[in-house]
Amino acid sequence: MPRDSAALALGADETAxxxxxxxxxxxxxxxxxxxxxxxxxxxxPLVEVxxxxxxxxxxxxxADDVAALFDALIQGAEHKLGHGLTEEIPYLxxxxxxxxxxxxxxxxxSLADYQAHEGFAGLKRALTMTGTEIVQEVLDSGLRxxxxxxxxxxxxxRTVAQAQAAQKYVVCNADEGDSGxxxxxxxxxxDPFMLIEGMTIAGIAVGATRGYIYVRSEYPHSFxxxxxxxxxxxxxxxxxxxxxxxxxxxxxxxRKAAGAYVCGEETAMLESIEGKRGVVRAKPPLxxxxxxxxxPTVINNVISLASVPVILAxxxxxYAGYGMGRSKGTLPIQLAxxxxxxxxxxxxxxxxxxELLHDFGGGSASGRPIRAVQVGGPxxxxxxxxxxxxxxxxxxxxxxxxxVGHGGIVAFDDTVDMAEQARYAxxxxxxxxxxxxxxxxxxxxxxxxxxxxxxxxxNRPQQIHLLRDLCDTMLHGSLCAMGGMTPYPVLSALNHFPxxxxxxxxxxxxx
Length: 511
Known about the structure:
511 residues; alpha/beta; Rossmann fold; Ubiquitin-like (UB roll); 4 domains; four-stranded parallel beta sheet; 23 helices; globular
């Protein structure tokens, strides 16, 4: 029975209480384990029953369903809410779960559960290797940052490892603020030891003895679970001054984020951790050389660091065997928006958007055609139906002027107004800008005004030309990706859906 936030929002606690109460009423002895979510959110609250054949799934199970369902539950029998063996549900069976191998299966705060499912195997191997060997393993795996920039993780680690300093840090960027994303939250709530293990391996690899997890302020459950997991790991010797008797030291601390989207930008996050206002720093110097408190710092997001344990446990070649081109391994993709089956799908790079939207997502929830898909958060490009056969690959998306980003996919049906979506992107930037650089601070405000004039048909051709010019300035002049990426959704909407910007829009379209 999941304890995940998504399940809780759908009544998982009430269902759990009803199951316990019904068992007591009937005098039946049961063990109710609160595990993580499988990520099949349309079936939450999902109840699984352990049988000799495997786990049998029932869902969505509301508290009022429990009394009538209970006989089937205790026997793992067929029922109208039943879905058979959980592992055989096509949505789950057709995935390649490496990072999410334990999520939904184990008790998130059970060290025994974690270790029974390959937990800490990567750390134990890392403790037998030199820092250089660990970094090489990560390099050879082809792991790239899963937070958006897709920078090779091993190169970042190598830079920090080679830097000379008395103190180094590992910082996990868990300020998951992109719309339609929740994979970071699921890792933190549903398999926290995996993140702790990944960060500890990173610390050993680069010679860092302290780490910080910067958790989005809207994630209270993640904050609490991580703190509990850190305490458990320390007590068991997996964290602290003498990790598993190796003489290696690594300590972890959780910091609550400042509630600003821009603090997801790595340098603004560092400012926030240091107790300052979250404002973007100019680069260089790079955080790998002068990061937290001016010291060499590894900064990766949750999924990047959570991918490390399986790489160390099974070897770089195993991980690099998944994916395509320079996009190695798997990506936890988050399906959201107007889709029939929203949820988490972990697949190797290379499948297409169309497969994700229809084979997994089941098409639109409204039953209408899917017109546009935004990939990579509120600053990601809008892709039209003609581009749905694009493989999920960093280079393939870059060729379209799009980003894979954090792997969040938000779908819109044919009732969407793309001019309004473009205006929203500019407005989002204006609200969330840290204000340090002019192109982002002023450009986004002027952008909202220009799009509104286009919507009102005020000298539309000239305003469209002005909007493109403004986007060019923001793209090339902004200090960070906040202003630099805002043109992505705006220009993609303008290029692919010119009719939504008025009849004159078609004549203004540019490549």
